[in-house]
Write a structure and sequence with these properties.
Layout lengths: L6 E7 L4 H8 L3 H13 L4 E4 L2 H6 L1 H12 L6 E4 L3 H10 L11 E5 L16 E5 L2 E4 L2 E4 L3 H17 L9 E4 L12 H14 L7 E5 L17 H13 L6 E4 L13 H9 L4 H12 L3
Parallel strand pairs: 1-2, 1-10, 2-3, 3-4, 4-5, 5-8, 8-9, 9-10
Antiparallel strand pairs: 6-7
Helix pairs in contact: 2-4, 4-5, 6-7, 8-9, 9-10
Length: 294
């Protein structure tokens, strides 16, 4: 059963997954369609579509992928490509009628790729707003605090609404960029959680969605936790357990992952809460405690 209040953007149509890369390499549109149907049946509300470098070399390929997906599912699509021209071509081919009139999503707009905002005037769109970086003195720099995440997100939403790019706050997903726990020596996960809290508590941001991709979080960790449980799965659920009460409501993830909220006595949840408060070598040593038996 999906967690009430959690929207899932299906992540699997992405060459970062080897099986999907093989589908793209073979131009196996039937296989891509089957993957889209599986995600829809598993509870996805949107499907992210990332055709990787193949889309950059041949924009029509991504158009074909989108048309193939829209022929078998009626979900709105999140169109994931950093190239303006490619996305414009795909947006023009997108058929909103085949998505029950739902708007497509631009994935994603950042201060380093602000020109992608103009795509929201090609047709009505929603947008994922990357809030882990900002432009400062003509340079793009990473954010280091939750306050900066909140500030950047609010600035983008205000600018886009004032410019007539969107109809309202429901058209925005603030992506807080969930870091990899095993490499987080700088408190980036803590930053994301604090950013979620500040966005969620800001009345001026009411109606804006807060999201992130969970698949980065457990990378480079073994399969089993020290208590024998599924470490990667429980880490993803631990993040949701902490983040959802703060305002996190959308995940870029695998729909059949069976996300759930964990009880307070769950071993991985308890350790996750401890780790995100630590820095540098203390954080790395605490991560080892997640999977190394005492």
């Amino acid at each position: 059963m999906p967690i009430p209040g959690l929207t899932i953007i299906g992540e699997r149509i992405n060459p970062g997954f080897r099986s999907t890369q093989a589908l793209f390499d073979d131009e196996d549109f039937a296989g891509i369609q089957a993957l889209a149907v599986r995600q829809a049946q598993a509870g996805a509300s949107y499907l992210n579509v990332n055709a990787g470098t193949k889309a950059l070399k041949d924009p029509h390929f991504m158009v074909e992928v989108v048309r193939a997906i829209q022929a078998v599912v009626d979900l709105p699509l999140s169109l994931d490509c950093p190239d303006f021209a490619v996305l414009k071509t795909v947006l023009e081919a997108y058929d909103a009628a085949k998505a029950k009139g739902m708007k497509p999503v631009i994935n994603s707009i950042s201060e380093s790729r602000w020109e992608l905002a103009e795509l929201m005037k090609v047709r009505p769109c929603k947008a994922i707003l990357m809030s882990s970086e900002q432009e400062r003195d003509g340079r793009i720099v990473p954010n280091r605090t939750g306050e900066e995440v909140h500030e950047v997100a609010k600035r983008k939403v205000k600018r886009l609404l004032a410019g007539g790019y969107a109809e309202g706050p429901d058209d925005f997903f603030v992506d807080v960029s969930i870091a990899t726990l095993a490499a987080d020596t700088e408190g980036l996960i803590k930053m994301a959680l604090e950013g979620i809290r500040l966005v969620g508590a800001d009345p001026d941001m009411a109606g804006v969605h807060v999201m992130g991709g969970l698949s980065n979080l457990p990378q480079h960790l073994p399969a089993k936790a020290a208590d024998g449980s599924d470490l990667k799965y429980h880490l993803e659920c631990a993040f949701l357990t902490v983040a959802m009460p703060l305002g996190f409501d959308t995940v870029l993830g695998t729909p059949w992952r069976d996300y759930r909220l964990l009880p307070d006595d769950n071993f991985v949840l308890r350790e996750f809460r401890r780790i995100v408060e630590l820095r540098e070598s203390d954080a790395l040593m605490a991560v080892v405690d997640l999977y190394q038996e005492p």
